[in-house]
Amino acid sequence: MADLWQNAMDYAVAIARKAGEVVRDALRDDMKVMTKSSSVDLVTQTDQKVEQLIIQSVKEKFPTHRFIGEESVAAGEACDLTDSPTWIIDPIDGTTNFVHAFPFVAVSIGFSVNKQSEFGVVYSCLEDKMFTARRGKGAFCNGEPLKVSDQEDIKQSIIATEFGSSREPEAVDKIFSSLRNILCIPVHGVRGAGSAAINMCLVASGCVEAYYEIGIHIWDVAAGSLIVSEAGGVLMDVEGGVVDLMSRRIVAANRRAIAERIVKEIDSFSPPRDDTPPSKQ
Ligand SMILES: Nc1ncnc2c1ncn2[C@@H]1O[C@H](CO)[C@@H](O)[C@H]1OP(=O)(O)O
Ligand SMILES: [Mg+2]
Ligand SMILES: [Mg+2]
């Protein structure tokens, strides 16, 4: 049987490449940096331009499909995942990196039908690495198959995480408490690329054993989570349950035992969900 969504995936790869070109070109220009939820939650005109480029291109080819896009939600659109085919877009994942020309910046495009992820595309545009995954068909980087690390021992692992965009003392304390617990397991090291999507691709590539974060949004991890699972990895909530991409919490790891060990060390909290409108928070 023909693969129903392969066509859409090929289209997503082509759009991500084009979007990446726009991002690369914009790095050379003067940029106007604006802020969203806090003074360190940054956005540029390129984020907005790239999101519009992706949405307009998809609408031309798939007029009935729906969208969840970081900058559209920031502009007041609902963050609703229905059973309809839905493109979940982070036009620039790693805007802080982009603003500073720190070279890990990604275009992330996830695609769900019946609330199930069908494909994920993450284009790390300064490294020129195209990460892709199609449900049931594996994960790839520039066409080469990806496989998670086979490390069983957390003490010989590298763990990725981020400090996030909240500077509320309570949230920062919890982030540091988890970080301290994990560092002192002890692990070989802790890293963060500054892009949730790239951190997940690092798990899928076997460069780090796991990535965890509280505060991410569905558009940061929709594509990356399929790339991790298709590379043989596991996803989990930070308290050990089933991952919920609207809950803003995630653990992605090479194997269940490593994810469970990390869960034990996380001082968890629950940010407002992505699918709760600001008026109800
Ligand atoms: N100051 C900040 N530091 C790190 N991540 C931030 C951040 N502000 C927003 N983020 C977002 O949070 C995610 C996880 O840390 C990142 O991938 C990034 O996505 P963004 O660049 O698309 O906003
Ligand atoms: Mg992001
Ligand atoms: Mg973004």
From TrEMBL:
Binding site for Mg(2+) 1: 70, 92
Signal peptide residue numbers: none
Biological process terms in GO annotation: inositol biosynthetic process; phosphatidylinositol phosphate biosynthetic process; signal transduction
Location in the cell: Cytoplasm
Gene Ontology molecular-function annotations: fructose-1-phosphatase activity; glucose-1-phosphatase activity; glucose-6-phosphatase activity; glycerol-2-phosphatase activity; inositol monophosphate 1-phosphatase activity; inositol monophosphate 3-phosphatase activity; inositol monophosphate 4-phosphatase activity; metal ion binding
Keywords: Cytoplasm, Hydrolase, Lithium, Magnesium, Metal-binding
EC number: 3.1.3.25
Alphabetized Pfam families for the sequence: Inositol_P (PF00459)
Top-rank lineage group of the source organism: Eukaryota
Listed InterPro entries: IMPase, Inositol_monoP_metal-BS, Inositol_monoPase_Li-sen, Inositol_monophosphatase-like, Inositol_monophosphatase_CS
Reactions accelerated catalytically: 1D-myo-inositol 5-phosphate + H2O = myo-inositol + phosphate; adenosine 2'-phosphate + H2O = adenosine + phosphate; 1D-myo-inositol 4-phosphate + H2O = myo-inositol + phosphate; beta-D-fructose 1-phosphate + H2O = D-fructose + phosphate
CDD domains the record matches: IMPase
PANTHER family, alphabetized: INOSITOL MONOPHOSPHATASE, INOSITOL MONOPHOSPHATASE 1
Designated name of the protein: Inositol-1-monophosphatase
Record organism: Seriola lalandi dorsalis
